[in-house]
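Quick start: load a record and inspect it. Here is Methyltransferase:
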Amino acid sequence: MKGKDKDGKPTYPYDKSSRTVPMALMLLVLCGFSFYLGGIFCSDKDRNQTIETSKVETSPKSTGGSSLQVKAISFPECGIELQDYTPCTDPKRWKKFSTHRLSFLERHCPPLYERKECLIPPPNGYKAPIKWPESRGKCWYRNVPYDWINKQKSNQHWLLKEGDKFLFPGGGTMFPNGVGPYVDLMEDLIPQMKDGTIRTAIDTGCGVASWGGDLLDRGILTVSLAPRDNHEAQVQFALERGIPAILGIISTQRLPFPSNSFDMAHCSRCLIPWTEFGGIYLLEVNRILRPGGFWVLSGPPINYENRWRGWNTTIEDQKADFDKLQELLTSMCFKLFNKKDDIAVWQKLSSNECYNKLDNPDSYPPKCDDGTEPDSAWYTPIRSCVVAPEPKLKNLKLSALPKWPQRLNTAPERVGQIQGGSDGAFKHDNSKWKVRIKHYKKLLPALGTDKIRNVMDMNTMYGGFAAALVGAPLWVMNVVSSYAPNTLPVVYDRGLIGTYHDWCEAFSTYPRTYDLLHVDGLFSSESHRCEMKYVLLEMDRILRPGGYAIIREASYYVDGVATLTKGMRWSCHKEDTEYGLEKEKILICQKKLWYAKESSR
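Running the structure step on this input writes:
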């Protein structure tokens, strides 16, 4: 039955529709109030997380395959005090971090608001580096103008300043009379160093990398590792000499390398306290060393019977240290392989028998069973447990791998663990890079000559770029993104070297340490995470003046990259790929030599 309200309009008996308008109004009010509260509580967080993107604009036709539009920008010079700036291992920030196990020397990258948006200048008087192989024995003093090692290590012949050059006599703490005889003795103790069985090595606490430099002539490729510490610029000296090296330290985080990868590890009085903290540093060596691989130690407590007087200790203490070291290594499935004079060699066991014993709850260290991937090595804490080799991988051990150089082009067993990986995919990648390198040499005639020594492949798959250049007088640091498929084990299995890295951060090296940077689709794959401007500024930091970049990218990104490189004082020209496809182009760039305004040549 109808009724009328006070204005004479009809009304209806009570039903669901009579509440429709009030309920809608109530929901509208509640939503508005929630939005207001959200704005109050989230405004500060959003402000801190905002990343500047105003200089990058997408054209209206970008969805149709045109190019990324980037506004031109001219990057200013950094101050001369930043000539050796290493953003993630900056000594000025050390006091902010813990001294526990020297963890302040690990990677600690600056927050976004502290990032430098300027060009790192070379030192006053910088010159083009001396070419390989002469560079192994000398470098320009003004390129690495530091005297600390020269003054403190002169009796050990690490290096010697003579006129406008540093000379490298090949000495070290345990081989002051030259690295050659030291390695000769090592080869006598480890015959596998002579026949191509051992191909990859890591030198922890490398000094100026004389050990790694000597091994190059013996067919062994070494990653020389050292932190940025009071041994000023040791990694910078190594790279200036043309020897592979990277900033790093065994501390609280895993090293950025996959498990079961190096054929040999070496420590020559590297001052790492191997038996402290439950042997956790040895556990990390165990993780990265291949089954059947060798760990070589010289210095305390080796040869303590004859050396203890010079170590400011007692023979009893040194014997106790050696016994403790031997006990720890045995518990981690190592056996003493050989020992003579100042060198002792242990071998990591290959059989599962020892590793199965670690399942005993009373064993120490135990076998890792916490679910952490053995290859997880980017800001991953070192575990106090043994990473046992996978029993199903029958060809992981050193003795099962083909000898070098056959190993280079043999599809590794671990390629099958990668999504889409197979022997066929590996062989196709090999063939593809042979064609590409032939084309690159036409575009950049310096490639394959003594003008290019230190090379980085910034986002490799299987190391095909490096493999196709293996006969050239250069070496390649193969980089696999920490966000990409885990292909780095394959790189090591074929006898090449590399590291994990996230290109949203600075690389673990000094400025001006690479002659050539190679990019293959990096911006296409990482632009959703890493701002292009910062990646290019990092490339400028680590590239030597006069050095080159080969940037292979989707056509959409190429013009934007070229625009930014102009602001970095690079000269670039765009080229077709080997097949002339429009969807992909190549930029060939060269970094110009310039000096800070307050400096003179």
